[in-house]
């Protein structure tokens, strides 16, 4: 049976593959029951999965301080993304409260041609997200304004949402400022721009196909 190997400060411990897989299975099952049956949030199942992983690690000889260091390391890796999400919420609230979204809707109705609205919005969302590195910020600000403009000129909301998401996700994947792009390259130990270059192979054709369908 193949083993999953871990390194502790004093020794190398082998954990059988099935035991290493157990926390994931427990978390998935708990999450499915929580969301589907009880319609609850996934936070408790995530904690259950973490507890299961801790128990498995301790069963095979890991000390608590080693496990604790791993938890801290994971938190440090995720913290930049969490801060960005918090800032996104603040930005959306400020834009809505300050009338910026309403202003964008007003001038958007005057400047954007209805026949090219979806095509234009998709490109704008892509450029903006590429510049700021956050698809959520783009969707929560420009996306909200685009929905308002689309309703005003009679374009179905799902079509506007599709154009916004297509542009925002393309920009998020290609932006060197994106939290997910930086997190992925950091975890895998690859160069950031090398990572972006390889993602371009699949992301750019998908974006161009989306633009083609939107234009048609």
UniProtKB/TrEMBL annotation:
Domain Na+/H+ antiporter NhaC-like C-terminal, residue spans: 167-215
Keyword Transit peptide attributed: no
Keywords of this entry: Antiport, Cell membrane, Membrane, Transmembrane, Transmembrane helix, Transport
Protein's cellular compartments: Cell membrane
Residue ranges of the TM segments: 17-38, 44-62, 82-109, 115-132, 144-170, 196-215
Cellular component aspect of the GO annotation: plasma membrane
Molecular function terms from GO: antiporter activity
Membrane topology: Multi-pass membrane protein
Family: Belongs to the NhaC Na(+)/H(+) (TC 2.A.35) antiporter family.
Name under which the protein is recorded: Na(+)/H(+) antiporter
Gene source species: Rodentibacter pneumotropicus
Lineage: Bacteria, Pseudomonadati, Pseudomonadota, Gammaproteobacteria, Pasteurellales
Primary gene name: mleN_2
């Amino acid at each position: 049976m193949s083993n999953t190997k871990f390194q502790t400060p004093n020794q190398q411990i082998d954990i059988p593959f099935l035991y290493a897989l157990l926390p994931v299975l427990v978390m998935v099952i708990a999450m499915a029951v929580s969301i589907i049956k009880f319609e609850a949030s996934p936070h408790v199942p995530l904690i259950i999965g973490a507890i299961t992983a801790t128990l498995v690690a301790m069963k095979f000889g890991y000390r608590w301080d080693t496990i604790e260091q791993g938890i801290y390391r994971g938190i440090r890796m995720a913290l930049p993304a969490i801060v960005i999400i918090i800032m996104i919420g603040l930005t959306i609230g400020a834009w809505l409260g300050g009338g910026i979204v309403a202003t964008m809707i007003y001038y958007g109705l005057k400047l954007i041609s209805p026949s090219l609205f979806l095509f234009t919005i998709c490109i704008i969302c892509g450029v903006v997200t590429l510049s700021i590195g956050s698809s959520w910020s783009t969707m929560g600000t420009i996306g909200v304004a685009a929905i308002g403009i689309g309703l005003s000129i009679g374009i179905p909301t799902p079509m506007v949402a599709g154009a916004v998401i297509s542009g925002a996700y393309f920009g998020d994947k290609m932006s060197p400022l994106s939290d997910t792009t930086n997190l992925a390259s950091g975890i895998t130990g690859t160069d950031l721009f090398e990572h972006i270059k390889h993602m371009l192979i699949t992301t750019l054709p998908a974006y161009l196909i989306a633009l083609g369908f939107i234009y048609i």
